[in-house]
Amino acid sequence: QVQLVESGGGLVQAGGSLRLSCAASGRTFSSYGMGWFRQVSGKEREFVASINWIGSSTVYADSVKGRFTISRDNAKNTMFLQMNSLKPEDTAVYYCAGVRALRTYTKDYEYGYWGQGTRVTVSS
Predict the structure, then answer these.
(1) Closest CA to 93 of 39, 32, 47
(2) Is residue 11 helix, strand or coil?
(3) CB neighbours of 27 closer than 8 A, spacing ≥ 6?
(4) Are 38 and 94 in contact (CB under 8 A)?
(5) Residue 9: how many other CB atoms lie within 10 Å
(6) Quick one: which of 34, 40, 90, 111 has the fewest CB in 10 Å?
(7) CA 43 → CA 48, 67, 92, distances in Å?
(8) DSSP code, position 15
(9) 3 state SS of 110
(10) What is the per-residue pLDDT across 25-59, written as a single tens digit (0 to 9) for each?
(11) Beta strand 18-24 with 78-83: parallel, antiparallel or unpaired?
């Protein structure tokens, strides 16, 4: 099992940047494919990005491609989401998720482990 804790959310102006972190407990973090999702109140959870176990393969939603970068440091049991050129429509609660598998996944039902979320607010 793995427990996930996000951090790094906050309030930023449009065009600004934030870096989210997802800290994982346990010794098997490198056995997990990881992903970021986001959710706006009243809407379905949306896929943002995913990364395979070693960081050699990444997938991005079209809405964030070219602006966000997902990465991981297995030695530190941590995953990151660097968010640049933020837009008001990026405002959401961001969740990190893990699945005990080596490849990337893009559907939320494929992930078995979730953090509590961190709120990102982008002002115009």
Answers:
(1) 39
(2) strand
(3) none
(4) yes
(5) 18
(6) 40
(7) 14, 22, 10
(8) T
(9) helix
(10) 977 899 999 999 999 999 999 999 999 999 999 99
(11) antiparallel
